[in-house]
Write a structure and sequence with these properties.
This protein is an alpha+beta fold. The protein is built from seven helices and 24 strands.
C-alpha cells in the first residue's frame, strides 16, 4: 500500500490538532480507548462537542496550554493509502521542529483561521515549505463555521495567500485551497452541505488522489551504497552486491554507470529485490545491484549514470536551518553527513541571514542562533558528490553534527 507523508503547519488556535483528530475520527482510525478518553475529557471540560485535539497533543504541556510543542507522527489508513502526518508546531521558537517534521514529507497542509486570515506566521509556514521544496501544499481555511461559512471571506483569504505565492521562487509547486471546519467536519472527510458554493474535493479526497510519485524530484538517477552484500554461502560464494535505495530516476540492467568517488566505469549486471531478479527498478525502490566488473565499492560510495554526473567538490553554499543551543560561528568545524557519507566541514562564511517572511536578508552576520535560517559557505576536507537541493531533495541535503556533543546541530540544503 502506498504511503503519503504529510507535514502540517498552523498558528496558535488555528485548529491543527483538531483537524488531524477529525481526520482520524471520520476515517474510524481512533482506537476505542482513545475515543473514550476524548469523550470523557470533553465532558469534564464542559464541551458540547468532542475535543479532537486530544488525539494528537501527547505532552502534558501541550494539553494544558492547548498548543503543539513537539513533532508528533500520527498514522492512519484508508482502503487505498496509508498516511503519516507530522504534526509540527507553528511558533517561531519551534521553527527547527517544523523543519524537522517537514523534511521528509511529500505534501503539506497549512491551516489558516478564517477569522484572522493570512498572518505573519503564515508567511513563515509557507517559506519553510518552499525551502524544503514541498511540491503539493493544501491551504486549509479552517473555522469556516465562525465566519458563517462565508464564500466572500474564503475568497478574500485565498486572494491574500496568492499574493504570498507570488513571492515564491518555486514555480512547480501545486497550491490547493479548501474551506473546512475541523470542529463540525465540513469538507474534511465528508462534503459540506452548507458550503455548497465550494465545488472542489474534500481534504481527504484530495489527499487520496495525490500522485505519490510526482511529489519527488524526478530527473537524474542516484544510488548511494548503504551496504556491501557478501553472503559467504556455497551458493553465493562469489556474490558481491551493493544495497541501497534508488533516487531520481529508474535504474536498469545494462546501464553504463560510474562509481564515485573512484570514477570507475562499469555496467549494471543484475538487480535483486527479495532474492528475485529484475531488469529495472523504479525510483524509491530499495534494491541490491551487481556490477559487470570487479570494482572496489564501499559503503558511502555512489553509483550514477555516466552522462548524469553530480557535482564533486570540496566547497559549496547552502541554506542552513540552525537547531543547536550553541551558536554557529564563522570558522566553526562540524562533521557533515551527506547520506551515509561523513566528512569534516568548516564554516567558511556566514553570507547572510534569511528573513522567513520573504522580506529579504540580513547581511554582516557573524553567528547563527537556534531557529535561524541563513546562507552559509562551507569548506570540506574531502569532496562529496552532490546535487542542488531544488533538483534532488535527497542528494542535495545534509546534517551538521557537533564534534564534541555528537548532537545534530543543523540541517542544510545545497544551493
Amino acid at each position: 500500500m502506498e504511503v503519503l507523508k504529510i507535514a502540517t503547519a498552523g498558528s496558535v488556535d488555528d485548529g491543527k490538532s483538531t483537524l488531524i483528530g477529525r481526520l482520524l475520527y471520520d476515517t474510524k482510525s481512533l482506537t476505542t480507548d482513545k475515543l473514550e478518553a476524548i469523550e470523557k475529557s470533553s465532558k469534564q471540560k464542559g464541551y458540547d462537542y468532542l475535543d479532537f485535539s486530544l488525539a494528537t497533543d501527547g505532552l502534558v504541556a501541550e494539553r494544558e496550554q492547548g498548543i503543539t510543542i513537539d513533532v508528533a507522527h500520527i498514522y492512519f489508513s484508508t482502503a487505498t493509502r496509508s498516511y503519516i502526518i507530522a504534526d509540527t508546531p507553528g511558533h517561531v521558537e519551534y521553527t527547527r521542529n517544523m523543519v524537522t517534521g517537514a523534511s521528509t514529507s511529500q505534501a503539506a497542509i497549512i491551516l489558516i483561521d478564517a477569522r484572522h486570515g493570512v498572518i505573519e506566521q503564515t508567511y513563515r509556514h509557507f517559506f519553510i515549505n518552499n525551502l524544503l521544496r514541498i511540491k503539493d501544499v493544501i491551504v486549509a481555511i479552517n473555522k469556516m463555521d465562525l465566519v458563517d461559512f462565508s464564500e466572500e471571506r474564503y475568497n478574500e483569504i485565498k486572494a491574500d495567500f496568492q499574493q504570498l505565492v507570488a513571492k515564491s521562487d518555486y514555480e512547480d509547486q501545486n497550491i490547493t485551497f479548501i474551506p473546512v471546519s475541523a470542529l463540525t467536519g465540513d469538507n474534511v472527510v465528508n462534503t459540506s452541505e452548507i458550503m455548497n458554493w465550494y465545488k472542489g474535493k474534500t481534504l481527504l479526497e484530495h489527499l487520496e488522489e495525490l500522485d505519490t510519485q510526482n511529489v519527488y524530484n524526478k530527473g537524474v538517477m542516484r544510488f548511494p551504497v548503504q551496504n556491501v552484500i557478501r553472503p559467504k554461502t556455497a551458493e553465493y560464494h562469489d556474490f558481491r552486491g551493493y544495497a541501497g535505495k534508488v533516487y531520481g530516476d529508474n535504474i536498469n540492467v545494462g546501464d553504463e554507470v560510474i562509481v564515485l568517488p573512484s570514477q570507475t566505469k562499469t555496467k549494471i549486471k543484475e538487480i535483486y529485490f527479495n532474492n528475485k531478479k529484475y531488469t529495472s527498478a523504479a525510483r524509491r525502490s530499495s534494491i541490491t545491484v551487481t556490477l559487470e566488473n570487479d570494482v572496489n565499492v564501499s559503503r558511502g560510495d555512489m553509483i550514477v549514470k555516466t552522462n548524469e554526473l553530480p557535482k564533486v567538490e570540496k566547497q559549496f553554499n547552502a541554506t542552513i536551518s540552525w537547531m543547536d543551543n550553541k551558536p554557529l560561528l564563522n570558522g566553526s568545524k562540524y562533521v557533515l553527513q551527506h547520506g551515509v557519507h561523513k566528512v569534516l566541514a568548516k564554516v567558511a562564511t556566514i553570507n547572510h541571514k534569511i528573513e522567513t517572511d520573504f522580506s529579504g536578508v540580513i547581511n554582516e552576520v557573524n553567528s547563527l542562533n537556534m531557529n535561524d535560517i541563513a546562507s552559509v559557505s562551507f569548506q570540506l576536507n574531502k569532496p562529496i558528490y552532490f546535487d542542488a537541493f531544488k533538483n534532488n531533495r535527497t542528494n542535495g541535503s545534509f546534517i551538521l553534527i557537533d564534534t564534541q556533543t555528537n548532537n545534530t546541530a543543523g540541517v542544510g540544503f545545497i544551493n
